[in-house]
Amino acid sequence: MLRDFSINKILPIAVLLAIFYAPSTTARLPELGDPTLASLNKQQEQLLGLTFYRSLRANLVFIDDRQINYYLNTLGNRLASHSDAAGDQFRFFIINAPTINAFAGPAAYIGVHSKLFIEAKDESQLASVIAHEIAHVSQRHLARRFNQPGTSTALTLATLLTAILIGTQDSQAGQAVLMSGIAANQQSSINFTRQNEYEADRVGIKILADSGINPVGMVGFFEILLAKGTDNGMEYLRTHPLNENRVSEAKGRLSKATENLPTDSLDFEFAKGRMVILTSTQPEKYTDDKIVSTGLIGQYQKALALTLSNRADEAIPLLISLSKHHKQLWIRLALADAYSANLQDKEALDVLEKLAELYPGHLPVTMSYASALLANKKPGKSISILKQQLQQNHTLSQQDYASIYEVLAQSYFANGQISAALESTGNQYAKQGYFELAIQQYDHALAQKHNSHSTNERLEAAKEAVKLEMTEFKNAL
């Protein structure tokens, strides 16, 4: 179920953003003239992105499933690596929302609604939406919008982000906020958005092709959207103007050179099948073979539904049977989860130990393995593998780091290492941008007795680094 969400909760965010970005006498004025230049400097954009993301997390329900998010970020970063913004740090996430939509926020934060994920027929359709949003980032469309003559950057930022937030739950209310906020230059905004959409389509098709994914998915997804119309939860059509001309132009950009590129992957099918079960308010209905298919994905869904319906004892033999014929990681991770749900912690650990050997550094495996080690009262081993993950993987997102530090703190605490647990929690908060809380945790760690001199030096250094980052963000206002 989605949390209760009202305009009254969001309007203070708009006010806050407007205050954050009101002109100040000390702020560096943006250069004018080039419409591709941002009105914000890099630090301001990063702060806005962080504020935006934290506002989303505070008010909406995210899909925090490690396996689905690992798939999404792997796909997203694959696409982003073939864009003009390849050097930027992209952050991909999924909001549990009953509308079909996606959006690119400041600082390359890209959100996808769970309904869009589920409605995509194949990987190329999902990838086409992500590539389109990546193109908005690489072509700096948000920055261009703020640079339009007569536009108040602070007001536009607050209005735009508020509209996105509200629109996630109530498309008509979100549209009303957006249109009232830019009423003074309404028509030019619409025309500008249409131009952005055409450009994002063109760039997105190239990103898809360069990534080895068939761009035909963009056309297919457009046709699905037009067939459904704006009266069927099609928030995407309200925020991304679409007509037959856009579909025709997208078709015209397809080439014979890409027609043999793949349109789907088994990973997408597993991710989509998993999403269906995790977002269902009645997962038990998927335990019926008349509802799910008797094929691989259908039976995987059935096993997930059995586990979620407190029938893990029935899911286990089904997953064991599937794993004998199919070696997919998704199935074996589901088996480990079913064992854990059935309080068979040793069996879960056995499965995950083997997976950790086969997939070293794979984040969902590492995190599940660490949790299983904790459940089996082996926190020392959990600490070891989590520290290895931090040292060896340089492609983790800030949220990934935060998740690792959270479980690492639990492991240290279970191992009786209170100072290290507090330090890890401080690191978690620092990665999430909660600077004051991070400093508080470092202070608590410093107050612990029996710290070594080197430990205190490390804690002081971490504390000063967070203070510096916090100061830089404040100076960017």
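Second entry:
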Amino acid sequence: MFLLLEIVILVGVVLLLLERKANGHLPGFTSKRKLILDSCALIDGRIVEVVRSGFVADQLVIPQAVVSELQNLADGKDSHKRERARYGLDIAHELQDTAPIQVVIDHTPFPEVPAIDDKLIALSKKLHAQLYTTDYNLSKVAAVEGVKVLNINELAQSLRPITLPGETLNIRIIQKGSSRDQGVGYLEDGTMIVIEGAARFEGRIVPVTVTRMHQTVAGKMVFGQVKHQASAHHRSSAVADEKLRSRLRP
């Protein structure tokens, strides 16, 4: 009798451990990290290079609802959307054929959830997965729902080289800025730089001294001055400081 009771308890414990292992909640066991791709991620296409670099989860999940959405767009009348959707489908096939990790198509229907974005969030919760998207609104909704979001645009912004105040760069002045004497140019990584005193150098490459940086929701902006003007400003400030100190001397 006691032997039978011990066997029943042992079987119950084993079943409980197996269930927790499958859900990834058991310490000491590691479950596959899953990454769900939406249509924006596939159309963007950069996921292929991210996968090849090794900076990804253990398993990519492409919902059937996303494939159907791309198929509908690929059959539509809008030529621009049609080409982008076909490219997204090509990316899905390329991932299946060449990705060094497992790529699966998930067929969970979620009939009670009509919107595709809501289906993605529901699937992420069900699979305990992260969501890979470039859709800003979907990212915000998913974050509110407690779903971890990976956005390649945010990653690209964070990986841009840091430009420090005081550095001198050669910048082509593309156009005039909002102020009369401002010029606008771009760093090599595409970051906009607003340059004081550069409006008259439009179309030319001039040495620019970085003065400050400003982080916005859209990304980073850099401000600077044409180098000779920045040097002159520095010299005039130094002279003014020296005059002030001389007046304060006994």
